[in-house]
Amino acid sequence: MRFDEAASRREWFEQRLAPLMDRLYGTALRLTRNSADAEDIVAEAVTKAWTQLDRLRDAQHFEGWLFHILTNTFISEWRKRRCRPSSGGDDATEPSELDSASFALFQQLHQPFLLWWGSLEEQFFNGLLQEDLQRALDALPDAYRVTIVLVEVQGYTYEEVASLLGIPLGTVRSRLNRARCRLQQALWEQAREAGVVSGTGGAQE
Fold first, then answer.
1. How far is CA 65 from the centre of its chain?
2. Its pTM surpasses 0.90
3. Are the CB atoms for 38 and 25 separated by under 8 Å?
């Protein structure tokens, strides 16, 4: 893309950037779990997008291009943190066994992590506050959270996530399954505490 004047270039960029800022920050916040880090990631991504604007071949792809820069910016920082010693060992630990009867309702997970069915359960999950869902997501170990955000929120394929994170495809699938299990467990516990479902897996009458 070419611009006749610096002013028109800046105006074009700012007009297309402004409507995306809230979503950029929201995505960065899901990835980082920290408002200051999210702001830093967004600021760095916007700076990169501005300085690399000439590389954008098609203006229609600006949004996807910008979010790709945001993701790569986060991944770059996240990889640096992965190199630091860690005592978590999340990937080596299998998630706790879940009661298959209790979780029969949680067989399909949809963005943004809401599960839909009838009657009392539907009423409960319709009433969940966004911050409750965000807390469940934030509680995931970093490796699981990053994977599920990239796949379920940003729409990357398993293969793309494997390439971005530098991990085998099987690891992506494993992390995604474990992330879903933990999210399902958190949602189930909220439903049980609210009296929507019984401790044995059935909905209360």
1. 17
2. no
3. yes
Alpha-carbon span 137 to 134, nearest angstrom = 5
Per DSSP, the residues of 16-68 read HHGGGHHHHHHHHHHHHS-HHHHHHHHHHHHHHHHHTGGG---GGGHHHHHHH
φ, ψ for residue 154, nearest 5 deg:
-95, -10
- What's the pLDDT tens digit per position in 107-128? 433 434 443 334 444 555 555 5
Mean pLDDT of 80-105: 47
Dihedral through CA 13, CA 14, CA 15, CA 18, nearest 10?
120
Summarize pLDDT for 13-68 with one digit per residue, the tens.
999 999 999 999 999 998 998 899 999 999 999 999 999 998 998 888 999 999 99
- Dihedral angle computed from the Cα positions of residues 101, 103, 108 and 112, in that order, rounded to the nearest 10 degrees: 170
Token representation of residue 20: 């995306």
Taking a C-beta distance cutoff of 8 angstroms, is the pair 146, 115 a contact?
no
109's CB contacts (< 8 A; 6+ apart) are 115, 152, 180, 183, 184
**How far is residue 52 from each of residues 27, 68, 186, measured CA to CA in Å?**
21, 13, 41
Going by C-alpha positions, the residue among 114, 126, 117, 103 that lies closest to residue 201 is 103
Judged against a pLDDT cut of 70, whether residue 84 lies above it is answered with: no
* Cα separation, 202 vs 205, whole angstroms: 9
Please check whether residue 186 is in contact with residue 179, taking contact to mean a CB–CB distance below 8 angstroms: no
